[in-house]
Amino acid sequence: MIVEHLSLVDFRNYAQAELALEPGPNVLVGRNGQGKTNLAEAIAYLATLGSHRVSADAPLVRDGKDAAFVRARLAHGQRRVTLELQINKQGANRARVSGSPVRASELPRYAQVVLFAPEDLQIVRGDPSQRRRFADQLLVQRTPRMAGVIADYERTLRQRTALLKSARARRITGTQLSTLDVWDDKLVALGSELIDARTRLAQDLAEPVAAAYAGVAGEDHRPRLAWALSVRGGDPEEGDAHEDEAAGTTAELFRAALAARRPQELERGLTLVGPHRDDLLLTVRGLPVKGYASHGESWSVALSLRLASAELLRGESQGGDPVLILDDVFAELDAHRRRRLAGVVAGFEQVVVTAAVAADVPEPLRANAVRIEAGAVLGPLADHPIGPSSDE
Length: 392
Prior knowledge:
It is built from nine helices and 15 strands. The chain has helices at 36-48, 121-125, 128-142, 146-170, 179-217, 250-268, 289-292, 295-316, 335-345; strands spanning 2-11, 14-20, 24-29, 67-76, 79-88, 94-97, 100-102, 113-116, 224-228, 279-284, 287-288, 323-327, 350-355, 369-373, 376-380. Helix 5 (179-217) crosses helix 6 (250-268). The radius of gyration is 23 Å and the shape is globular. It is found in: Cytoplasm.
């Protein structure tokens, strides 16, 4: 897949912008705060319906406006498709595909993007919710219908937890709360499907992650990933990742764990079992990345997760490679890792790189460099050079 042209109106700091992109590498160069990442964010939003920087849509709309507009022309081989999205500060977003109205949730079927940004370091160093979000986003990209499963699970979880809180406030015991069994059935059905999908995803990522890590770091530190599941005992959300050896299907283990934890759930007013409490454990050299890995190792693991994601999507897509976006990444890497990363990504159909200093980006990726300044796309960097203060 190739993004041939991107148009923005009232998106972030852009009153209006037109950006032409080429197959192969594209570099957006400009000082910090000028709008490079905003362009990358707009492209990625069409594929994920979310921002990698904020959880709500309102910050994406330019100050003083009610809506932002993102339009992109995509090429899938010889086929062209135009995606249009109206992002509203309030109310549902609106979308079109080649002029025809569609639900916004349909857009990811046409756009596949994998974005790596400095915020992704939190996938390996942050709390479990960061790793769950990474996994679920990739699940939806691979299998769009999983978005409905995840949304239904979260809705059921909220309703079940509300019932637990109400019971706690009214001092109702488990034997007096028969309606909880109904929510348990729904939670188990949806949650088991999500747990099994995440488990398969970790298995599918194993080899691509190892290959990407070796490609970026130049060393084999044996990166591994596996889920710690609350249905097998413990509470990974609170750092207790021990697992029982009990056998059974995911649904059977889930139901048994809910029964065992019901007294604690009623006492705390929380749902303590399910995929919302699980954690994706990441290790290098046999040690947890979080707390043990060096800064370089942590960066390499985070990068490897995104590169492995791109490889999975690439292998499964009939529309070509996903667009690979590297947002302000090269400045954080040493010269060795910069060169190796450039070699790893060079084979993708389209790569978009943002950088404050063009020289941070290895020369093979600088074929099409564009200058960005103060919410404006100024054109080729050669025609609009940035002065010596660009690294300030």
